């Protein structure tokens, strides 16, 4: 029993049961599972603990509080990585609604996905708030990690998908008050996106010495958040009756796109250099190869949608003076050209990603949901291009891309359930062993 408890403590990387006061330096960020690699509560078999350090560990467990014998363990172990599930289910609901070959049955399936996404988002937000209120030290520990804070970018992206579905589904059904709701949520989403886009990369730059060989595509997550918010801003601006409100929403959306898109392109260049000089990411992180598709696909869709709305709003508001009548048309054409270029660049990264996963076997982790959102937004850009062209090619291609996203969702659901029960089971084993040791 003594050796068993030592092994359990070594797997956990801390003394006995995890304590939020412990630091997490040395814990790898390569695996993003149910439990965060940044948090001291992670059970991560890939952590290499020297035997001399294991021998020094105090194997006497700390006293167990009753509330940590049940659901509180899950609360303590919760991480921002779970919001990637919202990204996946959210983009699927949007695609189901916007498909060129649509039907009533697809509409109602999109509503089901929307309700599921909204429910999960509220649940995850509640658990996250509870986690940091009860264990405030975990927030500081998470922020100090070189990789996990980047996953905070998933939160505003997930919120963006909900705002768009409110516009697409709730506004036609329930009227003006849902427009106000969507507009309010969008401003909140835009503010959070900018804060995360600026603050998280700076904290990591300031705190850690990042090597090129360890750089991952997850750096794009916080930077992509304003790009997604800019696209949703254009969608919200279309349903605003007050043209001045629509104008300021549109201008803010251009600001969001302009501040984040060049940053994401810079990161893509650096990540391309990392791949060229240091090979592909490790197997457990290979799905991150799809992440570069997200800012390109969503950025292309955003600039096309912004140009489309500008062509309607600018002439009505007299923006840009005498050129107002034509400036919207110029932005519309320019937006389509830029969107098509970014869409084509995204296709190249899809090839790199598919070629990479075909070369390496990789275990399931929650990062598999990273498949869905990038492919979904690229499919959305494909459909947007098809709506402006007489050819059916892009509509068919967008539908095929959407179908692939649905297949990925189905492949993710069952392994995710197994992963959840496996990780919860590990924690109950640890608690059982320590309880037996304390009683003996």
UniProtKB/TrEMBL annotation:
Q: Does the keyword Transmembrane apply?
A: yes
Which stretches of sequence are listed as region Disordered?
1-29
Alphabetical keyword list: Cell membrane, Membrane, Transmembrane, Transmembrane helix, Transport
**Any one GO MF annotation of this record:** sulfite transmembrane transporter activity
Short name of one Pfam family:
SLAC1
Bilayer topology reads: Multi-pass membrane protein
Example of a GO cellular component annotation carried by this entry? plasma membrane
* Membrane-crossing segments per the record: 73-99, 105-130, 150-174, 186-205, 217-240, 246-272, 330-354, 366-386, 393-414
Q: Which purpose does this protein serve, as stated in its record?
A: Sulphite efflux pump required for the secretion of sulphite as a reducing agent. In the presence of sulphite, cystine in keratin is directly cleaved to cysteine and S-sulphocysteine, and thereby, reduced proteins become accessible to hydrolysis by a variety of secreted endo- and exoproteases. Excretion of sulphite mediated by an efflux pump also represents a detoxification pathway for dermatophytes during infection of the epidermal stratum corneum, hair and nails, which are rich in cysteine.
Q: What is this protein called?
A: Sulfite efflux pump SSU1
């Amino acid at each position: 029993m003594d050796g068993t408890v030592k092994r359990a403590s070594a797997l956990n990387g801390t003394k006995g049961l995890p304590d939020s006061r412990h630091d997490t330096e040395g814990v790898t960020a390569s695996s993003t599972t149910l439990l965060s690699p940044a948090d001291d509560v992670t059970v991560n078999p890939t952590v290499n603990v020297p035997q001399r350090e294991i021998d020094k560990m105090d194997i006497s467990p700390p006293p167990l509080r009753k509330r940590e014998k049940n659901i509180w363990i899950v609360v303590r172990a919760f991480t921002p990585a779970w919001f990637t599930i919202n990204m996946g289910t959210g983009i699927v609901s949007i695609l189901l609604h916007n498909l060129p070959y649509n039907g009533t049955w697809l509409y109602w399936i999109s509503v089901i996905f929307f309700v599921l996404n909204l429910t999960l988002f509220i649940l995850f937000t509640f658990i996250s708030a509870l986690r940091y209120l009860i264990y405030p030290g975990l927030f500081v520990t998470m922020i100090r990690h070189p990789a996990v804070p980047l996953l905070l970018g998933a939160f505003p992206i997930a919120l963006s998908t909900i705002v768009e579905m409110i516009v697409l589904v709730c506004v036609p059904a329930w009227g003006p008050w849902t427009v106000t709701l969507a507009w309010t949520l969008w401003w909140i989403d835009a503010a959070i996106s900018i804060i995360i886009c600026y603050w998280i990369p700076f904290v990591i730059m300031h705190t850690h010495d990042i090597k090129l060989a360890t750089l991952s595509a997850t750096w794009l997550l916080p930077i992509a958040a304003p790009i997604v918010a800019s696209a949703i801003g254009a969608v919200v601006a279309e349903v605003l009756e007050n043209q001045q409100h629509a104008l300021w929403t549109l201008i803010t959306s251009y600001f969001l796109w302009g501040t984040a898109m060049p940053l994401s392109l810079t990161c893509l260049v650096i990540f391309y250099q990392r791949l060229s000089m240091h090979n592909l990411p490790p197997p457990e992180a290979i799905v991150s190869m799809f992440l570069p598709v997200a800012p390109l696909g969503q950025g292309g869709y955003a600039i096309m949608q912004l140009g489309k709305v500008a062509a309607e709003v600018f002439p009505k508001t007299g923006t840009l003076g005498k050129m107002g009548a034509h400036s919207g048309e110029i932005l519309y054409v320019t937006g389509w050209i830029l969107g098509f270029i970014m869409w084509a660049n995204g296709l190249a990264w899809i090839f790199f990603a598919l070629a990479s996963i075909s070369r390496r076997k990789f275990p399931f982790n929650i990062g598999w949901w990273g498949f869905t959102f990038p492919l979904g937004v690229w499919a959305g850009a494909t459909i947007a291009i098809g709506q402006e062209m007489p050819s059916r090619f892009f509509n068919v291609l967008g539908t095929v891309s959407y179908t692939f996203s649905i297949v990925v969702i189905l492949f993710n659901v069952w392994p995710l359930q197994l992963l959840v029960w496996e990780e919860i089971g590990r924690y109950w084993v640890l608690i059982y062993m320590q309880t037996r040791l304390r009683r003996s």
